[in-house]
Amino acid sequence: MISNNGSELLYAAHEKIYPREVKGTFQSLRNYTVILLLGIYYFLPWIKWDSHQAVLFDLPARKFYIFSLTFWPQDFYYLTWLMVIASITLFLTTAIAGRLWCGYACPQTVWTEIFIWMERWAEGDRNSQIKLDKSSWNVNKIWRKSLKQFLWIGFSAWTGFTFVGYFTPISELGQELLTVSLGPWEFFWVVFYGFATYGNAGFMREQVCKYMCPYARFQSAMFDRDTLIIAYDEKRGEPRGHRKKGASQIQALGDCVACDQCVQVCPTGIDIRDGLQYECIACGACIDACNNVMDKMGYCRNLIRYTTENITQTGGVIRLIRLRTVLYTFVWLFAIVGFLFAISQRVPLDLDVIRDRNALYQTVDEDSIENVYTLKIMNKDRKTQRYQVSVSGLPGITTVPAEITVEVASGEVYNLPVRARAALDSIQRMSSEIEFKVATLEAEAQSVHETTRFLAPL
Questions:
Q1: Measuring CA to CA, which residue among 324, 319, 211, 314 is closest to residue 268?
Q2: 4, 85, 133, 225: which one has the fewest Cβ atoms less than 10 Å from its Cβ?
Q3: Both ends of the chain: CA-CA distance in Å?
Q4: Is residue 325 situated within a structural domain?
Q5: 108 shares its domain with 202
Q6: 188/318 same-domain check
Q7: Each residue's pLDDT expressed in tens, for the chain with a length of 458 residues
Q8: Are residues 399 and 302 in the same domain?
């Protein structure tokens, strides 16, 4: 880039992109997706489920509520499993439909879209925004810019408040906010997440996709020649040239009328006619814009369309079923079925057995041996439970006393000292494997087992 005085600059100054509003199939789909995803995000914390918030990551209480499920720190692998499923879903979606996630469901895309809506409402359409930015400061410009900032800041603050509402019960958080009694960490995260939303969706916008997002860099590893992309039909469109509206197709020119509508509607400011670019988020805005122009000119649609590299170069049809997608689908289904099975078999009870290391064993009446253990019983149910403790693994082995029942409150880790006694003549080796069992005393009995070692003299 060359500066005004003729010297060469290393970096080009950023130029604001003013996406033109467009109507069409893909834009309508994006609008519905934005409304759906933001609706879920903003209203889900207000839904009650069994006397608690439907989705709540209660860090102080170490409880993670997801509707009817309650997870504890010991269940963290379930959340990891869900993240693995989400990753495989992204890989499968990318292999089939390219950057569909970026164009429709990425948080950066969703929040940027809503911020653009507010900007258009406050400042007008694309031409009005360009004209307003170039004009000198006056009452109209101050009013419109102030209104936009008020909407952006208010929406960002609501976003930050809702984010914290997933970690602090949102009804309590609302009361603290109204009484100006937010805790320091809650206040920090409301401001931090609100500021991040304001900066990313209000100012940085496409720069996040171009320069910060790693997905644009490694997505090519999931692409192949049959992955759906947005492409311009160069054979049909070139050579491009201007012509009057409604004019019939000119033999010397292609169907592209060089209106640049596809560039003006692009949220990242690229020209799709230059070929596939990593900045393209596959939102489909250029398809809608081009189809609208083709309709006005009376030409065939889909000069710009979803297609594949194979189709553009050799013709053919879209191939959704191929080795890559079959493997992704198999792994995806395996992960989902495995997760659902693990959840169905999940017992809201945890047990850890710790041997007393101060004494290897104790001799009782010269014919019996005792080992001492500490049982850590964790009740992961939502209500207080009564449990019965038993031991097995050696002939005649029993706890002392033989009948042990304990009551453990919800979320409590109960430390229970237990003595296990076995007859000396039933022990065949110095170290034997035994098993403790903790079972509920409810109608639907649930139990957990934990093995440990029983030591005795030879």
A1: 211
A2: 4
A3: 87
A4: yes
A5: yes
A6: yes
A7: 455 555 555 566 778 899 999 999 999 999 999 999 999 999 999 999 877 899 999 888 778 888 888 888 778 888 889 899 999 999 899 888 888 899 999 999 999 999 999 999 999 999 999 999 999 999 999 999 999 999 999 999 999 999 999 999 999 999 999 988 888 999 999 999 999 999 999 999 988 888 888 877 777 777 888 888 899 999 898 898 888 876 666 777 888 999 999 999 999 999 999 988 888 899 999 999 999 999 998 899 999 999 988 888 787 788 888 888 999 999 999 999 999 998 888 888 889 999 888 888 888 887 889 999 999 998 888 788 899 999 998 898 999 888 889 999 887 889 999 999 998 888 888 889 999 999 988 756 788 999 999 998 87
A8: no
Long-range interactions of 366-370: CB distance < 8 A, separation 24+: 366/424, 367/423, 367/424, 367/425, 368/421, 368/422, 368/423, 368/424, 369/421, 369/422, 369/424, 369/427, 369/454, 369/456, 369/457, 370/400, 370/419, 370/420, 370/421
Q: List beta partners, residue 65.
A: 56, 70
Residue 1 lies in a domain: no
18 is a domain residue = yes
Single residue among 327, 346, 365 that ends a domain in this structure: 346
User: Under DSSP, is residue 385 helix (H, G, I), strand (E, B) or coil?
Assistant: strand
As given in the structure block, the two tokens for residue 352 are 């850890």
Reported residue count of the chain is 458
The pair of three-digit structure tokens given for residue 137, joined into one six-digit string? 């400061």
Whether residues 313 and 354 share a domain: the answer is no
CA distance 253 to 324: 40
- CB atoms closer than 10 angstroms to residue 340: 10
pTM of the shown model:
0.82
Counted domains in the chain: 2
Measured distance CA(145)–CA(119) in Å, rounded: 9
Q: Are 435 and 451 in contact (CB under 8 A)?
A: yes
Domain housing 374: 349-455
How far is residue 379's CA from residue 50's CA, in Å, rounded to a whole number? 18
Helix orientation angle between 139-164 and 184-197, rounded to the nearest 10 degrees: 130
In a domain, 5, yes or no: no
- How many contiguous H segments (helices) and E segments (strands) does the chain have? 15, 16
Residues 159 and 304 in one domain: yes
Expressed in percent and rounded to 5, the helix, strand and coil fractions of the chain are: 45, 20, 35
Ramachandran area for residue 260 (φ above 0: left; ψ -120 to 50: alpha; else beta): left
Tell which of 346, 373, 402 closes a domain.
346
Cβ distance 114 to 155 under 8 Å?
Answer: yes
Q: What is the CATH number of the domain that holds 397?
A: 2.60.40.10
